[in-house]
């Protein structure tokens, strides 16, 4: 696998997404596309297919907004205990290969390491209960603190109010191309994508962004 050369000397802050970037997106896809439809179907006494259709209609309407990522919104809208349902399949929550080694590598270089996620506080708490990763971050920021989702206009400007950083001396890694595009528009200088966010799904076309296949690619320079 080719090394990805990073200008570490000129990077102060490393912003890292959580789901699909540090953690396997398989859990989230499995939860929303298989487990939720099953439980929703049971609750409403309909087929799993009907449940899938109903849920995808509800999600499409608000995709990419903060509500879409908000557990409180879904618990209210679906009248179901989503956290409890997530615990049922939590054995699928997994840290991606070489992530801990990469986080140690960043620590060794004295970089400021910031988790920057759209996930809701309750989801973060749940994931940290199954994935031992929390202590690797200098700051944990969710879009729900910022007030906008990462793919929304104005997100990075709003982020400036809660995190002191230089956009030309920041590296940001995310698996969502809309999110990377918003960061690029704002002017974050170093951007990387993820080649295969979900270990059970095919690899992804990351368009103009350099895809990380394995974190060891970043640790050679
Ligand atoms: Mg992600």
Explain briefly what this protein structure is.
This protein is of the alpha/beta class and 221 residues long. 39% of the residues lie in helices and 12% in strands. The protein folds into 2 domains: 8-24 and 94-218, Rossmann fold (3-Layer(aba) Sandwich), CATH 3.40.50.1000; 27-91, no CATH class.
CATH class membership of the largest domain:
Alpha Beta
Overall outline: globular
Uncertain segments: none
- Helix content class: 25-40%
Strand order of the largest sheet: 3-2-1-4-5-6
Distance between the termini: 14 Å
Number of helices: 9
**The CATH topology of the largest domain, please?**
Rossmann fold
Mean pLDDT: 96
Strand content: 5-15%
The helix/strand class is alpha/beta
Task: Give Rg in angstroms.
Answer: 18 Å
CATH superfamily of the largest domain: HAD superfamily/HAD-like
In total, the number of strands is 6
Order of helices and strands: EHHHHHEHEHHEHEE
Write the layout of secondary structure elements.
Blueprint: E1 13-16, H1 26-44, H2 48-60, H3 71-78, H4 82-88, H5 99-108, E2 112-117, H6 121-130, E3 139-142, H7 143-146, H8 155-159, E4 170-173, H9 177-186, E5 190-194, E6 210-212
Parallel strand pairs: 1-2, 1-4, 2-3, 4-5, 5-6
Helix pairs in contact: 1-2
The structure holds magnesium ion (MG).
């Amino acid at each position: 696998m080719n090394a990805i050369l990073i200008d570490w000397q000129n990077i102060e802050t490393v912003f890292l997404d959580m789901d699909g970037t540090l953690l396997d997106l398989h859990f989230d896809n499995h939860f929303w596309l298989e487990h939720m439809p099953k439980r929703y179907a049971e609750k409403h006494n309909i087929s799993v297919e009907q449940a899938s259709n109903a849920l995808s209609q509800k999600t499409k309407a608000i995709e990419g907004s903060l509500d879409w990522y908000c557990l409180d919104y879904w618990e209210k809208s679906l009248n179901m205990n989503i956290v409890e349902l997530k615990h049922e399949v939590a054995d699928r929550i997994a840290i991606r290969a070489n992530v801990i080694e990469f986080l140690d590598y960043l620590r060794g270089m004295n970089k400021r390491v910031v988790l920057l996620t759209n996930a809701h506080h309750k989801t973060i708490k749940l994931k940290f209960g199954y994935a031992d990763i929390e202590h690797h971050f200098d700051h944990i920021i969710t879009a729900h603190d910022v007030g906008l989702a990462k793919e929304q206009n104005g997100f990075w400007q709003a982020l400036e109010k809660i995190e002191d950083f230089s956009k030309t001396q920041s590296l940001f890694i995310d698996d969502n191309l809309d999110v990377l595009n918003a960061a690029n528009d704002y002017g974050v200088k170093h951007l990387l994508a993820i080649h295969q966010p979900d270990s059970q799904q095919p690899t992804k076309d990351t368009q103009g962004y350099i895809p990380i296949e394995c974190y060891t690619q970043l640790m050679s320079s």
